Amino acid sequence: MTKSNYKSGKWVIIVGFVLVIMGIIFHLQSSSLVGPSSSFMYANPEWTFNGLIIIGIGTSVIVIGLYMKSRRNKNQLIS
User: Fold this and answer.
1) How far apart are CA 68 and CA 28, in angstroms?
2) Using one digit for the tens of pLDDT, what is the confidence trace for 27-74?
3) Rounded Cα gap, residues 18 and 8, in angstroms
4) What is the 3-state secondary structure (H, E, C) of the chain?
5) How many domains is the chain built from?
6) Residue 65 maps to a domain
7) Residues with Cβ < 8 Å from 37, sequence gap 6 or more?
8) Is 3 contained in some domain?
9) Which of 14, 23, 28, 46 lies at a CB distance of 3.0 to 4.6 Å from 33, suitable for a disulfide?
């Protein structure tokens, strides 16, 4: 594998954290705690569910990124 593939685990983790933060914001906005009341997500229970799904996807992406980083560390120890 190339060196850029080894660093990709870090970027996957960053994308996962961005997804989790977006999901939290969507969840809070749908619960009428954050954001302008003119938003289509404000007080919309459908976006509560969507926010939780996005948080779950982000968490899964973080776990995948951590796995990629751990594989990288094992490969460096073997080499």
Assistant:
1) 31
2) 999 998 888 888 888 888 999 999 999 999 999 999 999 998 888 776
3) 15
4) CCHHHHHHHHHHHHHHHHHHHHHHHHHHHHCCCCCCCCCCCCCCHHHHHHHHHHHHHHHHHHHHHHHHHHHHHHHHHHC
5) 1
6) yes
7) 43
8) no
9) 28
